[in-house]
Amino acid sequence: MISNSLKILYLLAYALILKSSSFSNFNSKFKDIAFKSSKISLEKAFEIGINDALARDYNMLNQVLGEDCSWDTPIGKYTNIEDINREISDIGSFLRDSKFSVIGIKKLQNGSEDILIEWIASGTWPLPWSPRLIIEGKTEMKQDKGKEKIVTMKDSWEKKWHFLGHFKAPFAWILGYLGAILLASSRKDPFKVLNKRNAYQIWETTPKLAVKATKIDRTNSRKTRMAYIIPNFCFTANITTSGRKPEEYFTTSPIEAQISPIIETSNVTDPETGSSELVRTRANKITWSLQVPTFSGIDENDMPPLKGKNYNETDGDFITYVKQPRRIIAVSDYNGSVQDKEAGNLRSNILNQLEKDGLKVKLSSDERPITGFMSFDAKVCWNKKGNIGMAIYEYRPKFIGKGNKIFVELEETNDKY
Q1: Would you tell me how many other CB atoms lie within 10 Å of the CB of residue 17?
Q2: pTM, whole model, 2 decimals?
């Protein structure tokens, strides 16, 4: 039997070994044992392997891929695991804060055990304004007969020009930098335009992790503009933006807001008679959706706790992480703010036009159309730990254009996209 004191000494020594760079081989062997003995899924192991390889740790990826694994991508074809490791590590060396996240997986209907994973990859381009490059793609994977290793992979990217010819030749570097300049605002919510019509566009949004916050507005007044400002309890950190070493942070946009009318009931007691009466009052439930930056991934277990100052659950406050699925939405430009009267009128016009066009609108649990507002003139700022530290609201004159949108969520069963 090993005494408790010896166990503690062993754990302390083990922790020191893991932190020491001179024992990286030991650390890799431990990972190997942990992976083989765990029930980790293939897609999760692949995600971990890519992220480790970006940091020049190839152990996990070597366990997932066969030695002669081929990878066919829009920027080149790689025929063995050494070339794959080298290319991924080159990307990790060039881009800062690179992150690879698997957002979906399905088995291909071709009579084999082939699978298709959907993913989002991102990284900060080394330019003064630190543009965040985001690319969405799919990888078709074929396993060996024993289902132990991946032997072939083929990529398709939604926006191939994001990484146009990177790491290949001087001319390709120039193209890459031009791509980065064009993508200076690429931290916005990724979407794909499926159709353009006179009154609206139809978008397909990418699955993502988001912070969902709710607050009750009992003023019943548009003048308060409560839906435009995210609640104070969303902020759980301070971000230092000045001094000798300003803190690096990530921004996401747009801020989504949805307003739902509700009826609240309460018992009011007459102080003179002592009798109570049930009173019903109108209020609005405002729900904000704040996209978590791609740097933090899409696993809420990796995120810090929520609920900042002034959080009051008894007053109707609520905040949580949600995995927002892929959505089909109809969007229309609106050069104003979320609680403008004109915004409500435009929303009604979009709903009427969608009905005329025969498109089915998605309904909430209370049978109301799911609609909302996207504020592209506002950004949420996150530190590297995943805490919200700031929100930036830009002043944009109407003659320039605010770039905001009104959206209506549609059923995915529609066949007219």
Answers
A1: 14
A2: 0.75
